[in-house]
Design goal:
The chain contains 6 helices and 5 strands; from the N terminus they run αβββαββαααα. It is an alpha+beta fold and 206 residues long. Strands 1-3-2-4-5 form a 5-stranded mixed beta barrel. β4 and β5 (118-124) form a beta hairpin. α3 (138-147) packs across α5 (176-191). The longest helix has 17 residues, at 81-97. The model has no long low-confidence stretch (mean pLDDT 91).
């Protein structure tokens, strides 16, 4: 989907984030809504050789896989018309050029009474991407996350901030994949005697 096609005839644009965008959008927006999209599940199956890893040790970040029985929770941001072009330019570099993601339009349902679905832009990395890593066990993913770091920070921070978001804003949602990997990472460091809780990792005690 080309940027000019996304911008065409829009007074505003909703952008749905389910990974780092939930805590670090870094583009101007009018308002945000917590909610979900149906038909996708979130998985730590995409590689990252810039933001949370490097060429030798690529990190693990989330992407979406089609699954009609699933839904993925996150945040949708409404970008005003005056900032759509610059926001898409920024996200194209962050998510597409450096991250290897492509764009799709999806139906987003806000977490509110009598929600009206919104059409939102989302970034998804697919298996034909050269840095796509694919499935692995929770322990294998946790081990990889625990040793990787990139230009934006440690891969562990990415994992823990995403888990923190889900607990704070979607406490009723049990994201088994996310929380199982989080638990495995914490166990790795506890076994090494390195940490006592998530906060010490977020503060850089790795």
């Amino acid at each position: 989907m080309k940027p000019q096609d996304i911008i065409k005839d829009k007074s505003s644009l909703w952008i749905f984030g389910y990974g780092s965008l939930v805590w670090k959008p870094d583009f101007p927006y009018n308002r945000s809504k917590i909610g979900f999209i149906k038909g996708y599940k979130r998985r730590f199956w995409h590689g990252d050789d810039f933001h949370r890893g490097d060429k030798e040790k690529p990190g693990r970040v989330v992407t979406l896989l089609a699954d009609q029985e699933a839904c993925t929770w996150g945040v949708a941001y409404e970008v005003p018309e005056s900032h759509i072009e610059e926001s898409l330019h920024y996200l194209n570099m962050r998510e597409v050029v450096l991250g290897g993601y492509t764009t799709e339009m999806v139906e987003f349902t806000p977490k509110e009474k009598n929600p009206a679905p919104l059409l939102a832009l989302v970034y998804i990395a697919t298996s034909d991407n050269p840095i796509y890593l694919g499935p692995a066990s929770d322990m294998e993913i946790a081990t990889q996350i625990s040793i990787c770091s990139g230009n934006t920070g440690h891969n562990i921070e990415y994992l823990l901030r995403l888990a923190e978001f889900m607990r704070l804003y979607c406490p009723e949602v049990e994201d088994e994949h996310l929380f199982s990997i989080e638990a495995a990472v914490l166990n790795i460091f506890r076994d090494c005697g390195g940490i006592k809780d998530q906060n010490s990792l977020l503060l850089g005690a790795v």
